[in-house]
Design a protein that fits this description.
alpha+beta, globular
């Protein structure tokens, strides 16, 4: 984890400290393979977060949904959009509230409040959205493995490790 924090403190992530719209960031966490515990030595660092929009966005003077940095695979949602996604049981949004404590990069008091109240976003919609999402991801993963240049043994080992990590994450979180 120290290696990741050092990387985020580096020049590649200066946008986190220098972009005015990101000053309202209340929650920032690792996502992707690090968030699921399925990372390997070559895994990239995916960051996801939530921010309270600047006044001009809150007053409706301009629109704001999310900040994206494609080079670092960072997405930070505006609170309004984030809450809307959670109410719709969006798996990509809800999973951020269930990451392990050691994956949290930044959490203000407001971020803690959001995370502590994750249960408010859980409804019957979650069954369909997570089930459909999991099926689609598994199909995508299997298709990627079929087109990969890895040996069958490496593909099976990677698939087994990924599924094992997902099951452990699911059991810990739910």
């Amino acid at each position: 984890m120290d290696k990741i924090r050092k990387k985020i403190a580096g020049q590649e992530y200066d946008f986190l400290r220098e972009t005015p719209d990101l000053r309202g960031c209340i929650y920032l966490t690792l996502s992707g393979s690090y968030g699921y515990g399925t990372n390997i030595s070559t895994s990239d660092v995916d960051l996801r977060g939530v921010l309270v929009e600047q006044p001009q966005y809150l007053y409706g003077l301009a629109g704001y949904e999310q900040f994206e940095d494609l080079a670092t695979d960072t997405v930070i949602y505006g609170l309004k959009k984030y809450v809307s996604l959670c109410v719709q049981a969006n798996p990509n949004a809800l999973e951020l509230l269930g990451t392990d404590e050691d994956c949290i990069i930044l959490q203000t008091e407001a971020g803690h409040l959001l995370r502590e109240n994750a249960h408010l976003f859980l409804s019957q919609r979650v069954i369909g959205s997570f089930g459909n999402y999991a099926s689609a991801q598994l199909r995508r993963f299997c298709n990627a493995l079929c087109h990969d240049q890895y040996s069958e043994e490496e593909q099976e080992a990677h698939l087994a490790a990924t599924l094992h990590g997902q099951i452990e994450h699911f059991n810990r979180t739910y």
